[in-house]
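Lecture 7 notes: from sequence to structure.

We start with a single chain of 430 residues. Read the sequence below before looking at the structure.
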Amino acid sequence: MILSHKNLISLYKIPYFASMNKFRILTAALSFLTTTVLAGGFQVNLQGQKQTGMGHTGTGLLLDNSSIFFNPGAVSFLDSLRGISLGASFILPRTTYLEPYPGNYTANIVKHTGTPFTVYAVWKFKKTAKWNAGLGIYTPFGSKVQWPDNWKGQFLIREIDLKTIFIQPTLSLKLNDKIGIGAGFIYATGGFSLRKGIPIQDTLGNYGEGNLHGKASGYGFNAGIYFKPNDKLSIGIDYRSQVAVKVNGGTAEFNVPSSVEKYFPETTFSTQLNLPQTISIGVGYAATSKLKLALDINYVGWKSYDSLIIDFEDNTDKLADIHSPRMYQNSFIYRIGAQYDLKEKWTVRLGAYYDSSPVQAGYLTPETPDADKIGVTAGVSFHVTKMIHVDASLLYIEGMKRTDTNLETQFGGTFKSKAVVPGISLEWNF
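Now the structure, written as tokens:
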């Protein structure tokens, strides 16, 4: 049985309704956790300021310590004995919703700023050593989405805030003057909170609300090969594994009229999901002594996320464990970039990419209103000294307009998203 949120409002006195609303609150929360926090269609590709300025290329082109993320095999080719870099980006997203026919109603997400960050450190025992050790701490997934509390989709989502941190110790070995290999263990940790309306009104006409809180963790690895056959050409292959994400002891709390409280007891839930692998192939080319070009292709194995399975700690006759289809498809991201040395102290960059959405028709949600995206980037570096430099980037993302109706919830409409993302980092090599 599939009900629209309008039909559910008319059924608020029926016990089945209460169980269905709780079902959808938890389903939406964990769906967004999966796709956004740890491996999603709303992926945060901001893992290095130089690379971001070049369309987020970096698999086949060695630029700095950020290769810990982009290709651990390239880290062994870094010249400095030690280096550390600190960076942050500032995501300014905008998303607009337009209802289906007659299309008179619109809603916009509440303005906010996301702040993903990066920390990279590299250490070599001595100049002639064949291996480098490194540590990366970065935030590749996570964001905040907040719609107005009274918008038409409030029974699917009002607000969700998600954060994740990847910690990656890394070793890289230079086999010879042309080939380097490297790998890093990944520990992922994160948390989320979610609010959404419940279509049950109290005596004052206020709708109920569900609040969810949970923490997630998982493990994986990042491995790469870097090949530099000559001074002009470099090639890289990087593999980021699936991450087995576990959510244990997540809690759900509800604010509803006392007459239906028994249908919304506080409970806990758990789930485990195998998130998709990412395979990246990149090429770097030094066209001149001042001009470098880069091309990356990322393949994301989203097909592994075909369903959402939730195990409730407390089952009732109205609340059973959940098996909800997601049916994501594998997707590609195509990236190009260029870097040019203007003067001794200044370097400029340009780039672009095309990111295809893994969300198939019939599975779009307002928690992740994902669509094919085009990104245009620019960047600049200023060398304060030979050892210290400042890098900055600017990314503009334009999502394609997308109209869809979710098969499970029957909520439909048109979504249009865009974002502006400035960023800055400081690197010190010594």
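The chain has one domain: 5-429. Keep this in mind for problem set 3.
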